[in-house]
Design brief:
transcription regulation; Transcriptional regulator; DNA binding; BlaI_family; Arc Repressor Mutant, subunit A; DNA-binding; mainly alpha
Length: about 120
């Protein structure tokens, strides 16, 4: 997802794994299982994600609690759509190239989904 940096994506992955809002400290605890990070670093990343409207936050006492603003699938679809810029011919070329790079299972799923969409 080009709109997110590596650490931003890791923070989002932590938030997507749960259905509840998480504090900075809880996100930090999940992230520091694999690496050292400062509390302020995670706080800054969550603040940036809030400003990008990728997470929502609510104040509970003195602590902010964060949750994803959208699902992983919705974010990915939005990013894919945003990448389709240019003329209709350029978009068609890009979509053809994308389809050519799909593995057979994903290609079959895409054909199935598009078929269902056309038959509506």
């Amino acid at each position: 997802m080009p709109n997110l940096g590596d650490l931003e994506l890791q923070v989002m992955e932590v938030l997507w794994r749960t259905d509840r809002a998480m504090s900075v400290r809880e996100v930090l605890a999940e992230l520091t299982r694999d690496r050292d990070l400062a509390y302020t670093t995670v706080m800054t990343v969550l603040d940036r994600l809030s400003k990008k409207e990728r997470v929502t936050r609510e104040l509970d006492g003195r602590a902010w609690y964060y949750r994803p603003a959208e699902s992983r699938a919705t974010l990915m679809a939005t990013e894919m759509q945003a990448a389709l810029v240019g003329s209709p011919e350029q978009r068609r070329e890009a979509l053809k190239e994308f389809a050519d790079q799909l593995d057979p299972e994903d290609a079959a799923l895409l054909v199935e989904l598009l078929g269902a969409r056309v038959s509506r």
